[in-house]
Amino acid sequence: MTATDMGAAGETPQAGGGRPYGIAARVLHWTIALLIVVQIGLGWYMNEVLPDHTPAQEGVESIHISLGLTILLLVLARIAVRLFNPPPPPPPGLARWERLLAGAAHLLFYALMLALPLTGWALVSMGARPISFWGLPWPHLPGVAQMFGSPVPRPVRHEVSHIHVYILIWVILLNLALHVAGALKHQFDGHPVLWRMTGARPPRGA
Q1: Which end of the chain is more exposed for a tag (fewer CB within 10 A), N or C?
Q2: What sections of the chain are H helices per DSSP?
Q3: Each residue of 24-65: pLDDT tens digit?
């Protein structure tokens, strides 16, 4: 990528080959991160605090569904940005295992950010109620009825709900903790990376 290309993408070349993420990537990164935190909080509040089958729970559930579909669309946009505007390379001097671990963590994160809203979409598609996306009609996930039957058996709904509510949530929280820990580790071991995603001034030599 040339200096002109990076400037058009909101990036600037830096000494030593380091460069920040583009503006679109940074905005999507932090927006998705914030929405995921809010979404996890809403899911916990909806399932653990509010009484089942009450108007309050249904109201929060509607927001939860719309927010999940919003995250899905933003993640797809983030993937498109990453494909057309590749991220900066890892800092020089990282061990091979650190590069491999960082790459695997990123791939897992994208898989989880797709799996969570998709399993949620599948779950609400197993019912007969129409799906609302911020007040607008949204289709049921194609293939759900063909795959599981109509109506969907209760054990199938329970299993998908368990995967969505418990397994994927804990896996994404664990991966998030590793992601933050890795970024902080590199920030203080001579391979700072946070400036690339914050738009801050790069440290000397970056």
Answers
A1: N
A2: 3-8, 23-44, 55-84, 96-125, 144-148, 154-162, 168-188, 194-198
A3: 988 999 999 999 999 999 999 998 999 988 999 999 999 999
Helix (H, G, I), strand (E, B) or coil at 115: helix
Task: Report the sign of the C-alpha dihedral through residues 135, 137, 143, 149, in that order.
Answer: positive
CB crowding 71-110: b at 16 or more within 10 Å, else e: bbebbeebeebbeebeebeebeebeeebeeebeeeeebbe
Question: With contact defined as beta carbons under 8 Å apart, do 197 and 21 qualify?
Answer: yes
Query: What are the backbone angles phi and psi of residue 137, rounded to the nearest 5°?
Result: -65, 140
**The overall pTM is greater than 0.85:** no
Cβ count near 163 (within 10 Å): 16
